[in-house]
């Protein structure tokens, strides 16, 4: 956490949710919800990829929020195979929309967290309130039934990921015609490669009006 981090508790579907909010300097340009990897395999909101995503959005001027899924840390409840976790992320989305009503909301996740965020995006689309954009790292294709995502989604994967193979992700992305950014030599947890994630997201995170101005 940084000096502008805020710990708080939100009431979820299975009890208290342990949360951390990072606030940028100046006026925020948006809110980013960040989801961590699988709770039953050590996943938590302090996972280094999850923290990297939160810090990246913070540097981009976003309020970055993450929380421990059910049964992790001080969050109550037990793992619910993604269903309850998606419900809880939706509650977080509602909470942040109420707190920052004028800001767009982006969704980001790592591994299991990509399934949660892609599923939440489908729910938001059905409500006519889709997220501004998605960033999915180590997309859990083949492990979970990850739904389709928007064309402008940023997909980042490790070349030598043996937890979720690159082949599985390409097979999932191909019918959607969405590019997958491959980091050479990166494993599932992006050991010694975290800087690439921050650099790629930072370079690609431009709004249409910003892109036009830079051309």
TrEMBL record:
Q: Does the keyword Ligase apply?
A: no
| Cross-referenced Gene3D superfamilies | alpha/beta hydrolase
Q: Which UniProt keywords apply?
A: Hydrolase
Cross-referenced InterPro entries, in alphabetical order?
Answer: AB_hydrolase_fold, Hydrolase_4
Gene Ontology molecular function terms on file: hydrolase activity
Pfam families in the record, alphabetically?
Hydrolase_4 (PF12146)
Domain spans labelled Serine aminopeptidase S33: 47-143
Source organism, top-level taxon: Bacteria
PANTHER family linked: AB HYDROLASE-1 DOMAIN-CONTAINING PROTEIN, ALPHA/BETA-HYDROLASES SUPERFAMILY PROTEIN
Name it. Alpha/beta hydrolase
Q: Which organism is it from?
A: Zemynaea arenosa
């Amino acid at each position: 956490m940084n000096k502008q981090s805020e710990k708080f508790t939100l009431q979820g579907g299975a009890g208290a949710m342990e949360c951390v909010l990072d606030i940028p300097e100046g006026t925020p340009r948006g809110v980013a919800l960040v989801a961590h990897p699988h709770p039953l395999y050590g996943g938590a909101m302090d996972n280094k990829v999850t923290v990297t995503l939160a810090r990246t959005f913070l540097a981009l001027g976003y309020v970055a929020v993450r929380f421990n899924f059910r049964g992790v840390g001080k969050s109550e409840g037990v793992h619910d195979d993604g269903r309850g976790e998606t419900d809880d992320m939706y509650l977080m989305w509602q909470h942040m929309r109420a707190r920052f009503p004028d800001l767009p909301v982006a969704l980001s996740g790592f591994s299991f967290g990509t399934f949660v965020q892609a599923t939440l995006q489908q729910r938001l689309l059905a409500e006519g309130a889709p997220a501004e954009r998605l960033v999915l790292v180590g997309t859990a294709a083949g492990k979970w039934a990850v739904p389709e995502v928007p064309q402008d989604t940023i997909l980042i994967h490790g070349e030598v990921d043996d937890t979720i193979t690159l082949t599985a992700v390409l097979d999932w992305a191909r019918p959607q015609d969405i590019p997958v950014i491959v980091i050479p030599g990166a494993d599932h947890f992006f050991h010694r490669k975290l800087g690439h994630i921050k650099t790629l997201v930072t370079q690609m995170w431009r709004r249409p009006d910003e892109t036009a101005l830079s051309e």
